[in-house]
Amino acid sequence: MAKEMKVCAEFSHHISAFWLPSYRRKTLETGSVGAGFLISPVAKSCYPSESFPFISKPKQITAIERILGLRESIPFSYKDPLPHSVGYSVSATLSLSYSFASLMHISGKPTIGEICRLAHIADVKSGTGLGDVSAICGGRGVVLRLTPGAPGYSVVDSIVTDLEKYTVITSVISKMSTSVMLRRLADSLESEGTRAYEEFLSDPSIEKLVELGRSFSMRVGMMSEELDRELSSILKKQDPLGYFVKKGLVVVVADKGETDSIYENMKAKFGNARKHRIMEEGLRIRFNQ
């Protein structure tokens, strides 16, 4: 008997600079509008595999199994180098990873749309995300989510810009689940998300995105005035494009030539830092891995 071919899916992570939740009766139409960055490193899911990678099932996996009527978990390999519950969209990459493995197991030939829609439904039903799956599945580089919903229902666009020119540096400062964040900030997300979205549409550029990310994160309460002053002070010599806070994540966008010095300053200040590339694509399928 021929050995079953291993197929792997790689998913970029997505960091939103601002967002406006949109809740509809239908899960496929629920989501968010906003804008953000696809970044490295990638999460990787491979099927088939000999084992299931979790002792305690994440909520999205349980949701996918219920949707598909699975009686047992599907063995698959899964690696994501970034931490969850801080703002890296790890919930979305996990939903996509298990959606991919489950549909490969069931049919062996799922479409990208099927994988992405199942992942979106799992994220929404689990309260772990609204727009990241659509951004990852439909965007390139700097992503604009124009209408909410799952892939195939949402409208996603991307800004034409020289992605090689810029770098993203992040530091984790706290943890907060998406469901808690959406509940605590519901009123301010509605007003400030609308304001940022309308302003960005008048000037859809990477410069405007970072500018709005800063004002949005301050107005909704994710970045304090004290933290803003501290970041301005430690980054003034490098003069980055800008910075903002997403949940528990400080995000700095800068020219590539300033990467190392900003990284060292961030690490010294917060005790941790990561360098990221802005990714040209959100997902990739690889065969015979």
Automatic annotation (TrEMBL):
What the entry lists under InterPro entries is as follows: PoK (IPR012043)
List the protein's name: Pantoate kinase
